[in-house]
Specification:
sodium; membrane; sodium transport; single chain; 10 helices; transmembrane helix; mainly alpha; Na/sul_symport_CS; 61% helix; elongated; 225 residues; two-stranded antiparallel sheet
Length: 225
């Protein structure tokens, strides 16, 4: 019956569904029997204790981290549903008149800034659909712009909300936000410099980025929206 329900409503069963079902089993599978002694001196089982109880789950679950990470995915969906991603695409369209190296630098800086307040998947979901049509419109290999932008999503070192490891470290209370900003700013700058150096040395010839690929659509000379 469960399978027929999922087949009837395609799209509702995702990887999250599998994870939730497995997690639910921990609350259902019995781990040990609970016993009690009757007035007659007999030991009888009256209930079962699951692998984990809701009280134990609440005491150990880092809700602050879950909300921070989940907020990043919610931000990406909200930007897409509200039309913010399309608006950003329209604002980025003048980049097509800039040199390619400057487009790569600006897009990498934009991604590095956005990934500080959103998760990596959320940043990718929001930015790459905007940059890909831009590369196709100026007849540049899309990977030339998408590769450095994708690598830049890993430069999330400034804020606690940037990624789960940052949130875990910040949750212990030994660091302030300004401490993380001071330590992460230099790493971000070095990371961007390494990406830019790699793009114009060994990455471009390795992936043949100077050639417009056959799998990319051919865009006619039209005014971008």
């Amino acid at each position: 019956m469960c399978l027929s329900f999922f087949f009837r409503y395609p799209g509702f069963a995702t990887d999250s569904t599998v994870a939730l079902l497995v997690g639910l089993l921990f609350f259902l599978i019995p781990a040990k029997r609970l016993t009690k002694t009757t007035p007659a001196g007999e030991t009888v089982a009256f209930d079962y204790s699951p692998l984990i109880t809701w009280k134990e789950f609440q005491s150990f679950m880092p809700w602050d981290i879950a909300i921070l990470v989940g907020g990043g995915f919610a931000l990406a969906d909200g930007c897409e549903e509200s039309g913010l991603s399309k608006w950003m695409g329209n604002k980025l369209s003048p980049l097509g008149s800039l040199p390619v190296w400057l487009i790569i630098l600006v897009s990498s800086l934009l991604v590095t800034s956005l990934t500080e307040v959103a998760s990596n998947p959320a940043t990718i979901t929001l930015i790459l659909p905007i940059l890909s049509p831009l590369a196709e419109a100026i007849h540049v290999n899309p990977l030339y712009i998408l590769l450095p932008s994708t690598l830049s999503t890993s430069f999330a070192f400034l804020l606690p909300v940037a990624n789960p490891p940052n949130a875990i470290v910040f949750s212990y209370g030994h660091l302030k936000v300004i401490d993380m900003v001071k330590a992460g700013l230099g790493i971000n700058i070095v990371g961007l410099a390494v990406v830019m150096l790699g793009m114009f040395t060994w990455i471009a010839p390795m992936f043949d980025l100077h050639t417009y690929p056959s799998w990319a659509p051919t865009i006619s000379n039209e005014t971008m929206p």
